[in-house]
Recover the amino acids of this structure.
């Protein structure tokens, strides 16, 4: 285990964390502002991945693929908001779980009907297929650098949007005190629809960017949903800043757990025990992190409602 | 020696000092009123005393027992019961079930899980007695949530009385009541005099002067003064910060 | 989740959506009262009658349904009566199942020992997890129970001794005792039916005990309960541990039923599914859990016969329930509005 390997894993963790942030940002906004638990957020991520993979294959333009994926997903999300989610804002969280779980079931079958059950193989854009020599002895895939760059850019954009614009002010007002915002005459319905669409766009972007380096398949939305929920809980529900910090934490902890824990255990434990324990500990690392954070700070690192 | 004594209670919310070294004593059997303008920290103080909020500093002693380290439920066992400013009842349950729940908390273990509660004669009798005392027998089978406001407040008091407290905390029992309901509530509190000590938080000055033997004035989280009605009426500072701004109805 | 009591807007929405039509129970009180016994009798006779109609396959299906209903009933107990929205209940089912696996792997063969151990292990596990989780509130509680279940899931995946991801086959059925084994091919069915009946009777009984009333009080107004002198935390923990134990028992039975255990039974979607079935049937209603399980699994089974696309009709059903029957199916059998109200 040398410095180069560690550095490479840090970059991987950063990339994964930033993608988690894209998904978690929408989730935490919808949760924080509308008090709505949307399990179907992962389905939007899945939609982004599928559309991007197919458009990329058909058009050979990755940029076009990402754009179309985002637009299509936002359109789907708008429909979803009008038909279902809008009517859930004031309902109990459990009812929201019930309804959005129903949407997951419908979405999975819809994807199956359109694209079939077999996982799609999404290719990396040709221009970014090769490695970049970052420092001596570390060739790093160019595409993964693009992920990191895109993630950072979006995070910056979100920060500016939330802290500098009127929409962002409404968003913050809604997150910290929805009723007050309503009294002050904020057109809450419009803000909600915008935020939901924004969240969908970010999820779709994450899906489109993740497609070439992950399996594009039914169930990918449910698989990413849980880490994203872990992120928003650690960060404090409703807080973009919290989601950013927590996403990086979870990304790093998860990647580091998988990369360093098994070899570390092999060094101190008998091989049979280490082989069992290593993957288990790596898998649960982020949940341990979450349990620890909640024990110390029951409302997450950056509680939006102080 | 006083029945109840709070010493140096402190509670901070961020930069706001909601309780600023509050000292308070309630004597055996007295009705002690706590008055003060809105935002003075009266409700915070009730929450600190009843244990629903943890105090940052200070001590609470009831009948020689230090309650400070005890949780809210443990304090009830030591004779401290409370009501809520907004009647806190079990809205979807019948009045009978409300009373049974309160009675059950005091008589034996609530971990009993095989015997039907309906078959426990002693519980039913105690609930019935409580209903009779609080004039709630007519509405025993109605859901608490649909009762008129005054009756809900009375049920709230009934729930607290089930604990047979030595000190009863009443947080604005007359809040939002019409004159008839207020009169009934005053009668009820009067009937409790001597049976237990009462710390009464109330905005209705007529009620306060009628019921309370002693009055403490809370302003900005501090006890400004304590004394009988004449003392408080005549206190210059009280007149300026409190009575001057809030004319009794 | 915000305390539903402290948020009147939500309460109004719920009440407004209550069923206006006359309930079955009002029209046919005698029938509804005797229905559980009738259902029990039909279920008891089912293995004998099934061959007449060529339905032998469905004996196994009903057995699975009963086992899942036991797990769902335990979730209904803490969620519906106790107001504890746990999204990790399948984790306890898994602990029960893997306890059976561990005992079989170690050479034990008594069914009663294995199921008893499943119950105890899951109960103990639930007590530990509950002790930590019950210090959080609302959504954070949902999430932390989910997190613990995920930990159990990954633990199971990593246990290569028990097959890891591929699971573990239980090739010889567990022994239930001298005269039970081999007496009739469907003995296990009746054993499951008996256990299920006992579990439902017990939960029904507990609901009307001091403990049951105290749990519902905590669900409806936790602050008031503390101010009445209830040991709120310990009551919730006791309920949580008991429910975990019963879920573990269901897991043990499920291991026997499938003759196979894999981590898939404790995947988070299984926890969500249990939650969904309970809410479909009716949260906090005595017969909510079995109704929801029966409807869900039967629909699933029927849809699978006709189409590969059997998920979306179920999804649509959930949306219909949310918008048309938010109290769940069991509400149709209630004697009066709001009795033992869901929330």
């Amino acid at each position: 285990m040398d410095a180069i390997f560690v550095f490479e894993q840090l970059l991987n963790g950063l990339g994964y964390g930033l993608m988690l942030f894209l998904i978690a940002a929408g989730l935490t906004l919808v949760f924080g502002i509308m008090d709505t638990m949307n399990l179907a957020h992962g389905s939007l991520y899945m939609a982004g991945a599928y559309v991007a993979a197919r458009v990329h294959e058909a058009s050979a333009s990755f940029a076009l693929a990402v754009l179309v994926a985002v637009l299509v997903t936002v359109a789907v999300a708008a429909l979803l908001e009008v038909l279902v989610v809008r009517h859930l804002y004031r309902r109990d969280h459990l009812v929201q779980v019930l309804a959005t779980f129903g949407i997951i079931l419908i979405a999975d079958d819809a994807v199956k009907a359109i694209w079939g059950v077999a996982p799609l193989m999404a290719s990396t854009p040709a221009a970014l297929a090769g490695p970049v020599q970052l420092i001596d002895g570390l060739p790093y895939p160019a595409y993964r650098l693009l992920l990191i760059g895109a993630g950072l850019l979006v995070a910056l954009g979100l920060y500016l949007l939330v802290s500098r614009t009127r929409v962002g002010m409404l968003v913050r007002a809604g997150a910290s005190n929805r009723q007050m915002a309503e009294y002050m005459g904020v057109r809450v319905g419009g803000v909600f629809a915008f935020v939901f669409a924004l969240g969908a766009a970010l999820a779709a972007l994450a899906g489109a960017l993740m497609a070439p380096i992950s399996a594009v398949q039914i169930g990918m939305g449910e698989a990413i949903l849980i880490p994203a929920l872990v992120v928003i809980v650690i960060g404090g529900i409703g807080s973009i800043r919290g989601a950013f910090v927590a996403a990086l934490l979870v990304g790093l902890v998860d990647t580091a757990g998988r990369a360093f824990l098994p070899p570390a255990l092999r060094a101190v434990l008998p091989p049979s025990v280490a082989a069992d324990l290593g993957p288990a500990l790596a898998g649960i690392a982020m949940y341990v992190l979450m349990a620890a954070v909640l024990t110390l700070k029951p409302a997450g690192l950056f509680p939006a409602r102080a | 020696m006083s029945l109840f004594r709070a010493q140096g209670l402190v509670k901070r919310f961020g930069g706001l000092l909601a309780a600023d070294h509050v000292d308070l004593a309630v004597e055996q059997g007295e009705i002690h009123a706590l008055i003060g303008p809105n935002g003075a920290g009266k409700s915070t103080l009730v929450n600190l005393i009843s244990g629903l909020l943890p105090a940052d500093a200070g001590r609470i002693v009831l009948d020689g027992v230090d309650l400070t380290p005890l949780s809210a439920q443990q304090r009830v066992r030591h004779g401290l019961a409370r009501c809520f400013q907004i009647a806190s009842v079990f809205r979807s349950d019948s009045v009978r079930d409300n009373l049974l729940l309160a009675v059950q908390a005091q008589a034996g273990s609530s971990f009993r899980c095989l015997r039907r509660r309906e078959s426990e004669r002693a519980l039913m009798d105690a609930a019935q007695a409580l209903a009779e005392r609080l004039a709630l027998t007519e509405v025993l089978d109605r859901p608490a949530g649909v009762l008129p406001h005054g009756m809900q407040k009375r049920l709230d008091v009934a729930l607290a009385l089930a604990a047979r407290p030595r000190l009863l905390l009443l947080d604005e029992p007359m809040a939002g009541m019409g004159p008839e309901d207020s009169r009934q509530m005053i009668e009820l509190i009067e009937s409790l005099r001597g049976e237990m000590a009462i710390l009464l938080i109330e905005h209705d000055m007529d009620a306060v002067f009628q019921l309370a033997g002693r009055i403490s004035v809370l302003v900005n989280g501090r006890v400004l003064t304590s004394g009988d009605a004449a003392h408080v009426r005549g206190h210059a500072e009280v007149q300026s910060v409190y009575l001057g701004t809030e004319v009794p109805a | 989740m915000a305390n539903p009591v402290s948020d009147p807007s939500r309460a109004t929405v719920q009440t407004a959506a209550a069923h206006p039509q006359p309930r079955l129970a009002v029209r046919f009180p005698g029938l509804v009262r005797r229905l559980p016994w009738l259902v029990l009798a039909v279920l008891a006779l089912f293995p004998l009658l099934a061959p007449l109609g060529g339905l032998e396959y469905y004996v196994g299906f009903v057995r699975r349904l009963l086992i899942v209903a036991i797990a769902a009933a335990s979730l209904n107990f803490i969620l519906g009566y106790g107001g504890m929205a746990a999204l990790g209940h399948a984790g306890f089912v898994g602990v029960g199942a893997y306890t059976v696996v561990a005992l079989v792997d170690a050479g034990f063969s008594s069914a009663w020992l294995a199921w008893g151990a499943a119950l105890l292990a899951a109960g103990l596990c639930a007590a530990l997890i509950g002790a930590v989780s019950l210090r959080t509130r609302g959504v954070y509680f949902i999430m932390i129970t989910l997190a613990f279940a995920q930990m159990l899931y990954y633990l199971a995946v990593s246990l290569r001794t028990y097959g890891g991801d591929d699971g573990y086959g239980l090739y010889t059925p567990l022994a239930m005792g001298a005269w039970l084994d081999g007496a009739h091919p469907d003995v296990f069915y009746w054993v499951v039916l008996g256990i299920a009946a006992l579990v439902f009777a017990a939960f029904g009984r507990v609901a009307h005990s001091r403990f049951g009333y105290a749990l519902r009080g905590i669900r409806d107004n936790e602050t008031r309960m503390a101010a009445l002198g209830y040991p709120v935390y310990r009551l919730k923990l006791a309920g949580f541990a008991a429910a975990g134990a019963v879920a573990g028992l269901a897991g043990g039975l499920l291991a026997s039923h499938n003759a196979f255990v894999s981590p898939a039974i404790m995947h988070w979607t299984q926890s969500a599914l249990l939650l969904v079935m309970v809410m479909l049937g009716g949260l906090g209603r005595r017969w909510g859990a079995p109704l929801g399980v029966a409807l869900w699994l039967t629909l699933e089974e029927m849809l699978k016969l006709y189409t590969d696309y059997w998920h979306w009709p179920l999804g649509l059903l959930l949306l219909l329930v949310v918008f048309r029957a938010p109290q769940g199916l069991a509400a149709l059998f209630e004697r009066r509005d709001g009795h033992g109200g869901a929330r």
Q: What stands out?
A: The first helix of chain A runs from residue 3 to 34. Chain A touches chain B through one residue (CB under 8 Å). The radius of gyration of chain A is 20 Å.
